UniProtKB/TrEMBL annotation:
Cellular component aspect of the GO annotation: nucleus
SMART domains: DEXDc (SM00487), HELICc (SM00490)
Region called Disordered, residue ranges: 1-65, 84-128, 900-973
GO biological process, one term: DNA repair
Residue intervals of the RING-type domain: 636-682
InterPro entries linked to this entry: Helicase_ATP-bd (IPR014001), Helicase_C-like (IPR001650), P-loop_NTPase (IPR027417), SNF2-like_sf (IPR038718), SNF2/RAD54-like_C (IPR049730), SNF2_N (IPR000330), SNF2_RAD54_helicase_TF (IPR050628), Znf_RING (IPR001841)
Protein name according to UniProt: P-loop containing nucleoside triphosphate hydrolase protein
Ranges of compositional bias, category Acidic residues: 923-973
Organism lineage: Eukaryota, Fungi, Dikarya, Ascomycota, Pezizomycotina
Highest taxon in the source lineage: Eukaryota
Length: 973
């Protein structure tokens, strides 16, 4: 299969690269069970032979000609195993002479007349990885030399298990119990190999270690003559600033081999577990296989790296730390100085985000998409190739990134393109390049369907030609597991903490610990939860008119979200409570609370909750009789909440959006004016195109910036969606607003105070999904005089970078409050060794990503990761649904069982149906909670992220973030 439409690539598949014709192969050299056949060992033999003295002749020519694995010095022989080591390192009596060894490995054949064929001439060592693999391919085809059979076997079933089970604690405990290999002060392969073999304790280990050493030796030589050298027990590639681990060298060797392949695809999927250094492995590959001169002349020499916005600057720092790249560019749409292809292609590496790629993609409507699908079917081509051709035809409408032929494309957190029909996915697939790599520790978060866009991206010769429906039919059924595993194993490499090398763990990391905490609610909280869940069930049963403001609370996803927020803190759903309950309901709730028994610590919470309900009753009385605001049935197209006084109309497309979501949209600069895109229809609009939904003054929607409560060490505070009034009351100097000490909130604060007292130097990360709850935590941490910083999904890149730097560098900052998906992707937070997960997620892979932020290479302390679940609430149900996912690729949950639906219904989560008709206006017939969340996320997938388009470093009060704390990027839920 050609790499690009209409492009035919010569064998081996390195575009337009004509390698010099190689001489004939060098001889094969064998000794005992170790076989070393390559140009490097032969070159070393020749050098030794040339420098021989007459006195050396008595030792035997064969000994001097043997390669590195054979030429070891003597070792003390004390055991039977050590005797085998001696046999490996020393020649036996009667070893073949030099004349026998230097004969070509392919024995000379005599013709019928008895004449001998001429000897094969020796060839010089391969200087580059491309030349090395070119020779290997020639040898395997022409039969010139014996092709080495020593390769790493891949078990498809084990690979599927590794990909789908990325829990760091389980993997660590399943791996070797004797820790990682100690650091070795050796700088030659000879010394390293001898040290490893000398550590063998039995025959089986000896044979296994010998095989692993042979594989490592060949992988190191595949980079070219003396390009990969041993340094202090690690591997140093020529041109790299820092050495890499054994498994990273092996990973880079596999990636380079794929790029030099003659069969394709020219790329693959690097699915190493979180924290094992996929970034460094990729950088090693970039340094090992640079663009050839002819591609440089064609300006096809640049590597494009697409990353989540949260790790944009982290990637740049890694490139500067480990590689030697002269020109690295961070590209965004507002960069007018570098917004032309001819300027971009002069850089060796270009870094950008998924949202920028999406914005560079021409607008593709449904009609055009259907036409392209038909065209692909008629021409028997992949849809990816057809879309790429369409982008070429639309060259003027496409951004400059789609008008460049890249040398290599690397996707970090590649599960961002899991939705095959999303605009971000199509935009990524339409990019042109020679090589393509997808990096993800969780490539299949929900099931085998998630792999389809990745197969298309890397241009798999077979699967990329299938439609999504055909792919599901052929690869996604329970009976196709073996077929799927085989297809994945051809293009994927995956190493986890469970894997071992030389009987040791891959990396030396301290043991991780997880601590699930089940918290029991107080009687007052239980009463409030029961009343609210029962009311939600009533709303689900009732047939509500479209203009009824309670209609949105009959939506199943809205109900789930409401209950999940309630388990964290009632203040998060205060407006929903006032919406769902009328005055009589609130007065009944007030009476029931007065009858609750006052015991112990719950006395304070009960008194405060009674005051809160009393306040709700007073507000409800004050609003009674008021005329409902116009367009009361309208809601924000992004967050689905209907707060009419906080809604704005985009005059160009007439879509409604709330203040928080409006501020959360990415800004670009066009003609010196700030522009944004509608999250529903992608229409571009400017500030003057937005009008208030009703006739309120501009002051009504402006945020209060006078308060200091809840601000972090950088004086930053998120602005929660729908909580403007709450913040105003919080910031008032004479405010009587007190934060309810709920079960979950108390558990978090008590644990942080305990850790600070027992481990004053330890740092902690708190993962939550709600901005409002993040501010509540910030207020209490501030009250306890604990310094902290925020990381939210709507912060600018500069704000995030400053927060991460402050957390790393300031010893006084002990806590980072961050979004589960905003901070749970790609960030390196090894300065912290403790984590708290406030809100469980439907997909365990997202939670593992969060744990992977602190448990990764560079972590020096044992880590503790606490997950908090409130007993007998929707928290329990999320965990149960997560556990009961089917075991195909172990991340799929197609449907909810009757038992699951009944359990969720008991907590007021699901809607009941009357007369067979669902009352859910948004969810349709979806039965899966996670699939429902996916549908909701995918609808808003094009609102991906807030990209910093300014050069300002100062965080002003106007920079406050809003909306959900989680990133708007395709979160892989």
């Amino acid at each position: 299969m050609s790499n690009e439409p209409g492009t035919k690539i010569a064998e081996p598949r390195r575009a337009s690269y004509d390698a010099p014709t190689a001489p004939e192969p060098c001889p094969a050299i064998k000794n005992a069970d170790i076989e070393m056949t390559d140009e490097w060992s032969h070159h070393d033999s020749c050098r030794k032979q040339k420098n021989r003295t007459p006195s050396d002749s008595s030792q035997g020519d064969a000994y001097n000609a043997t390669p590195v694995l054979v030429k070891f010095e003597k070792v003390d022989i004390k055991t039977e195993v050590e005797s085998q080591i001696k046999a490996e390192f020393e020649p036996e009596a009667g070893s073949p002479k030099i004349s026998d060894i230097t004969e070509p490995a392919q024995k000379q054949n005599e013709n019928e007349g008895g004449a001998k064929t001429a000897k094969q001439p020796r060839r010089t060592p391969a200087k580059t990885a491309f030349e090395y693999h070119k020779r290997k391919q020639e040898d395997s085809i022409g039969g010139i030399r014996k092709v080495r059979k020593t390769v790493r076997n891949v078990d498809p079933e084990k690979l599927l298990h590794s990909i789908s089970h990325q829990d760091p604690v389980t993997a660590y405990n399943a791996g070797p119990s004797n820790g990682a290999a100690p650091a070795m002060a050796v700088s030659t392969k000879k010394a390293f190999f001898q040290e490893i073999l000398s550590s063998c304790k039995d025959k089986d280990a000896f044979q296994k270690f010998k095989t692993d050493l042979n594989i490592l030796d060949e992988e190191s030589r595949s980079f070219g003559f003396k390009r990969m050298q041993m340094k202090n027990g690690m591997w140093q590639l020529k041109g790299m600033k820092s050495p890499v681990y054994h498994y990273q060298m092996s990973g880079a060797a596999w990636m380079v081999k794929c790029e030099c392949s003659s069969e394709g695809p020219l790329g693959g999927i690097l699915a190493d577990a979180m924290g094992l250094g996929k970034t460094v492995t990729s950088i090693t590959t970039m340094m090992a296989n640079p663009p050839p001169p002819d591609l440089k002349k064609k300006f096809q020499r640049t590597t494009l790296i697409i990353v989540p916005r949260s790790v944009l600057h982290q990637w740049k720092a890694e490139l500067e730390t480990h590689g030697k790249f002269k020109k690295v560019l961070i590209y965004n749409n507002s960069d007018t100085d570098n917004n032309m292809p001819r300027r971009i292609v002069y850089n060796e590496v270009v870094l950008t985000t998924y949202n920028v790629i999406r914005m560079n993609f021409p607008n593709l409507d449904n009609e055009t998409m259907e036409r392209l699908c038909n065209r692909a079917a008629e021409e028997e081509r992949s849809l990816t190739e057809v879309i790429q051709d369409w982008v070429t035809e639309k060259k003027k409408d496409a951004g400059c990134l789609h008008n460049i032929h890249w040398y290599r494309i690397i996707l970090d957190e590649a599960h961002f393109i899991k939705n095959p029909s999303a605009k971000t996915t199509l935009a990524v697939l339409a990019l042109k390049s020679h090589y393509r790599w997808a990096l993800s520790g969780t490539p299949a978060q929900n099931g085998p369907e998630d792999y389809y866009p990745l197969f298309c991206f890397i241009r798999d010769p077979e699967i990329s030609k299938l439609t999504f429906s055909d792919y599901r039919a052929e690869f996604c059924g329970p009976e196709q597991t073996e077929k799927l595993g085989l297809a994945i194993s051809k293009v994927t490499i995956c190493r986890t903490l469970e894997d071992s090398l030389f009987g040791k763990k891959l990396v030396n990391l301290p043991p991780p610990h997880t601590e699930p905490v089940t918290a029991k609610t107080s009687d007052a909280e239980r009463l409030l939860y029961t009343e609210i869940s029962a009311r939600l069930v009533e709303l689900g049963k009732g047939k509500l008119d479209d203009d009824n403001p309670q209609k949105e609370l009959s939506n199943r996803l809205a109900q789930i979200t409401c209950l999940r927020q309630l388990t964290a803190h009632p203040d998060l759903i205060e407006k929903d409570i006032l919406l769902m309950f009328d005055l009589k309901h609130l007065q009944d709730l007030q009476d029931k609370l007065s009858k609750v028994e006052r015991t112990g610590k719950s006395r304070v919470l009960l008194d405060m909750m009674q005051d809160r309900v009393k306040n709700w009753v007073a507000r409800k009385k004050a609003s009674k009789g008021r005329r409902r605001p116009v367009q009361r049935r309208k809601y924000c197209i992004q967050c689905k909440h209907s707060e009419t006084e906080d809604l704005w109309i985009i005059s160009i497309c007439r879509h409604l959006i709330c203040t928080d979501c409006l501020d959360n949209l990415e800004e670009t600069v066009e003609d010196d004016e700030v522009a944004k895109s509608c999250p529903r229809c992608q229409s571009t609009f400017y500030t003057h195109n937005v009008k208030e939904c009703q006739a309120h003054s501009m002051k009504k929607s402006k945020r209060s910036t006078s308060g200091n409560k809840g601000r972090d060490a950088l004086k930053f505070r998120p602005s929660p969606a729908g909580a403007t009034d709450w913040l105003k009351r919080l910031d008032t100097k004479k405010s009587r607003l007190q934060l309810l000490p709920t079960t979950k909130l108390t558990e978090i604060i008590d644990r942080i105070l305990s850790w600070k007292e027992e481990y004053p130097r330890d740092k902690c990360t708190i993962f939550t999904q709600w901005n409002h709850f993040a501010v509540i935590l910030g207020v209490l941490l501030q009250k306890e005089k604990i310094k902290f910083v925020y990381i939210t999904g709507s912060m600018t890149s500069q704000q995030r970078t400053r927060a991460v730097q402050e957390f790393h560098g300031n010893k006084q900052v002990h806590v980072m409050i961050m979004g589960l998906k905003a901070g749970g992707l790609g960030l390196n937070l090894t300065c912290a060794n403790r984590g708290i997960l406030v809100d469980r997620w439907w997909n365990e892979a997202v939670e593992n990503q969060a744990h992977g932020r602190i448990y990764r290479i560079g972590q020096k302390k044992p880590t503790t990761f606490v997950t908090i679940v409130v007993e007998d609430t929707v928290d329990d149900d999320v965990v149960d649904v997560q556990r009961e996912k089917q075991e195909g690729i172990n991340s799929v949950m197609e449907i909810l069982s009757k038992e699951q639906e009944a359990r969720l219904d008991r907590h007021g989560v699901t809607n009941t149906e009357e007369d067979g008709v669902s009352n859910s206006s948004e969810s349709g017939d979806d039965e899966s909670m996670e699939n429902l969340q996916d549908e909701y996320d995918d609808e808003n997938e094009d609102d991906d992220e807030v990209m910093d388009e300014t050069d300002e470093d100062e965080i002003t009060e106007e920079d406050e973030s809003d909306g959900d704390i989680e990133s708007d990027e395709d979160d892989g839920s």
